Amino acid sequence: MSRTVFCARLNKEAEGLDFQLYPGELGKRIFDNISKEAWAQWQHKQTMLINEKKLNMMDPEHRKLIETEMVNYLFEGKDVQIDGYTPPSEQ
């Protein structure tokens, strides 16, 4: 049985996550307000960001940067700026 959420990123009703994937209050907010589709999009962006900036997820500062970018992307409607990356549509 899938659950539906009103996705803050996609601005529409969509299939919600099956369980909370991120800890704490932010994780709950994501679980309640972000769809599987938007989360998958974020995961893709996050991977690119980690690779581009050579982030180490053991580093608290790097984790904080990722979390800030995640909130901006999922809740503020901002895109992730990745230096040196041009989306295929803009080449």
TrEMBL record:
Record Pfam families:
Iron_traffic
Recorded superkingdom = Bacteria
* Alphabetically ordered keywords of this record: Iron
Keyword Iron part of the UniProt annotation: yes
Q: Hey, which family's this protein in?
A: Belongs to the Fe(2+)-trafficking protein family.
> What HAMAP family does the annotation carry?
Fe_traffic_YggX
- What's this chain's function? Could be a mediator in iron transactions between iron acquisition and iron-requiring processes, such as synthesis and/or repair of Fe-S clusters in biosynthetic enzymes.
Q: What is this protein called?
A: Probable Fe(2+)-trafficking protein
Naturally occurring in which organism (per UniProt)? Vibrio olivae
